[in-house]
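Narrative summary of target 7.
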Amino acid sequence: MKKNVVLGIISSVFRMFVVFLISLVWLRYLLYDFSLSLALAICLTISFEVILIAVRKKRLIQNRQKEEDKKKEEGYANYFIFNDDSSAVNFFFMLAKKKHNAIKKSKYILIIHPNSKIVVFPFFTFRDFCADDLSYIFSALKNVEFDRLVVCASKVSAECEMLSKKFDKKTVILDRHGCYVLMKDYNIFPEKVIMPLENPKLTFFQLLQFAFCKQRTKGYFFASVLLLLSSFLVRQNIYYVIMSSILLLLSLIAYSNPKFNKKEEKKEVLS
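Modeled conformation, tokenized:
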């Protein structure tokens, strides 16, 4: 952390120094008074730094907001995935009836406008929403009169998006980002959020276990032999000799050290 702070300070000082020099050179060329040029160069440098800090702060806030929105998108989608289909239907019915004349069915919501009918069909799964899912929805709605189909899903395959444009009736497929935008427009959100699991970071011991497991023995050994043979062809061969020796040592550790080669116990699935 301290190293990053020091590097940041050095970078800022260097940037200000470069801006100051450029400003001073051009102002000195345009103005005859050196004192005035120096004062204006300092003012321009400070102004540039203040504007840069403000822009970076604004961008940082925007990036944090995007990260939070992305987590919420996945969290709301996970809420529908982990619950039964009725929870998604009930939610989107509550969302639709806020502004429209909506009728709730067992698997979808029918929105009735004076000149059109829209079907909202929630379909949340862990896998990508695919062409087979879209075919299933149209099959389920074969006896329903509607002008537009809106599918709410978590992730959508590119093939399915292309296929949706080929149907006679207008079809809109919203992924979890599109669903989140719709929720924000109507200011209605699910009562719970199931946040995505973060990928655990490798510990130092796990890194050593990965580097020195028995499966790495052959790789280290062949690399060391290759470097050793290369040392006979190169005039200054001390580097190859050293690296070859290190790789041989690593292959020996990977092969013989039991600490990094624990055998996994076989578990009977059906017992």
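The CA atoms of residues 26 and 37 lie 9 Å apart.
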